[in-house]
Amino acid sequence: MTDNKQSPFSTDLLNTAPTQHKMASAKKELSKIQKQQQKQTNKQQKQDETDNQIAAMGKPFWWMLLMFICSVVYLFPEAVFNAALTDVAGGRNSSEADLRAVELFGRTISGIGVTLLLADMLLKGKQVAKVSRALGYFALIAIMVWPTVFFGQKWLVDQFIIDASTSEERQQAYLSQVLRSALIQKSIQFEGIAYDPSKAHNATEKTFLSVFGGLVYADDKLINDLTDKKRMIMEKFVRDRAMSKFDEHYNNYHDFRLNLREKYKQYRQGSKQYNQALAGTQQGSDDYWLDTHNQVKQAWSKYQRGVNAFEARVESRAQKIAPKMHDYFERRNKCADKKKGNSRNRCFERLQKGYDKEIKKYSIPYIPADDWLIREEISTAENIGNSLITGVMTFGLFTVMQAVDAVTGGDAGFKDHRMVYTDDVNHYKNVLMVKMEPDFIKESGGYPLGISSIHQFRIHELTSIKVNKKLKQKGLNLPASWSITDRNSFDIAVSKKVRQQADSNWRAEMKAKGSNMPPNLSWQKFQKHADIQSRIRTKMADLYVNPTLADWNNRQFKQYIIEPNIQRKTTEYLNVLEAQKAEFADGGAFEAAGKSALRATIIPPISMSISLALVLLTVLKLPVKAFELVQAKRAILQPKSAKSTYIKMAISVSLIVAIFVVPLSVGGNHYTMKDSAINYFFKQMKDNDSATISYALKWLLITQPWVQPIGASIDRSLKITQGFNAISGPINRFDLAVLPEHDASQTSRSSSQSNALLPLTITTNPANARVAVMNIKPKYKAGMPLPAGRYDINVTAPGRESVRQWIHLTADKTSFSITL
After folding, report:
1. Which residues cross the membrane (predicted)?
2. Is 44 a residue whose pLDDT tops 70?
């Protein structure tokens, strides 16, 4: 044996010893501890790296990257809003509803932008050292800042600009908007302004129209100079606008006229069917009469079957009863002949009980026993013969007793009849027929036995009653005393029924078409009917005159439609423009119109300038932020110093200069050239109002056309405004719930005129259209009373594209037309 060899026994013992398991477990535990230490080391290294980044840059790399990405993402909707605002504010046919929609979009995006700006400025150091803490602070800032900015913008504008405006400012804003519209319509021209509405409406023209209203509004001298020319301007503006769309209006009218003629053809066809229904009254009467006689025949057949069944049932019972009754009377005679006194009475009682028991077996009404007897008449000769025979047999005693009875007032033994019984089944059948007739009458519905012919059955009073009842169920109303022999009353009832049915079918058909007009109207009366005029009013909208006929040529259309509308619109504009300034003050008749004009004049240029500045500032800051990211990633970190602070300040100043100075130095367009009349407006604003505002508007007029196409292109690709419109409903309701429209809130401060409720009426073209007011709880009803203000109207109809728009309810305008 040597030391190098181990015995199998010792080897197995070492391998199975507890020490081996402990060593393996210790290795696993050591590996686990080493991994945890490595993980903690890596975590500490990352934390040290983050701390170094915070010490050098004030923020960790991941936070800077997040803010950079958010800035890039935010830039897209902000640029889209800028382009959309330009389209609306500079649009030739933009409505107040369009301005409201883009306002909501802009306030939503502004809230996001300010949230990102403040988060980037305020969150630094320990606040962003950990991801969870940084995101928590960011969420807190968003919750506080977004609603403040979203609602704050509206509140500040309403409180300090719109509501705080004077009546003179509102009237001036209204005139500036009218002049802007007149410029678009080429009703007026300003020497030196190269605006041509017939040319392509590009970004430059849109920006010019956005700014023009504000420039005119700020030029008091121009407003005063135009005071004496208001009527001339208005008449030409209204006429030019009406005539510029004359072909469009007449084509719409022509298409509607053709459609209405087709509707009249359908109406005439319906009237023809209605008349045919009335003309078939006699045929209808004959059909009803034939049906009535068929019913009588069926009832007669049923009656006959009932009589046969009844007779068979009586026959069966008579056959059973006949022998029983014959036996009963035989026994009763024996009781009478053989019994005397109490024995006789007991005999009769036993027979009566047996009779009662037997009668119950046949389910018939109780019949006294004597009713089964037959009355047999006794002749005088028989009475005399019987008396003589009896007298002889009694040796004259019976004759003496007869004489005594006659003297005392008796019948002297003479009888006129006697009651006999029989076993003839027919006799018992006849008795049962009489006794059981009430059962038959009940089974037959009231008819008695003995009706032998259909004629008797037909003229029976009960037949007329039953026929009348069935006819009443079919809608034929006949008098309760009507007889089936009265054909004339029957024909009159059928005529009424046919007319009622024709009228009912006509009304149902008209109701399905949303109308209630009667049949057989001529073309002229058809056109003038209230339902048709209502449809024409919906189609013609503001052009409608009462009545509008559907057979006018273009000359008549101009004479009866366009010219009255020109006069009406001119008068409406002049009523506003020539009104006293007090009418534009709070509570005045034109308060809402003045505020709306002021909002359309002032707010778009301000919002557009701020949005444009934010877009440009964000674009220029992105390279700086990207450079800081590269520094942080490459660990090119240097402690903060006064020099780096000055450098950042210099960069910020350079960016501002680049944004607000460079465009005016190197750019321009035909509106900002020295020989353009727009320079006159800028100079007037600079001299009389504010040089800063003049500079800002000129900067906007130059810079905006560069940026607007970019935002529009982004929106065409990403459909951002389309996506926002899909969620704008809840945002709009949320906005109105927190801050109602300032026009509606101002009504509480005015006189009884502003406190009065106004009837809201929405007219639309589909008869089955559904109208909903989205910003109030009550359901829409035509003429529903509401306070003056702005309302979000949604109109839907099966098979048509829904329309949603804002309307402004005022004392001057309570009816609105929305066409699907």
Report:
1. 61-84, 104-123, 135-156, 602-624, 645-666
2. no
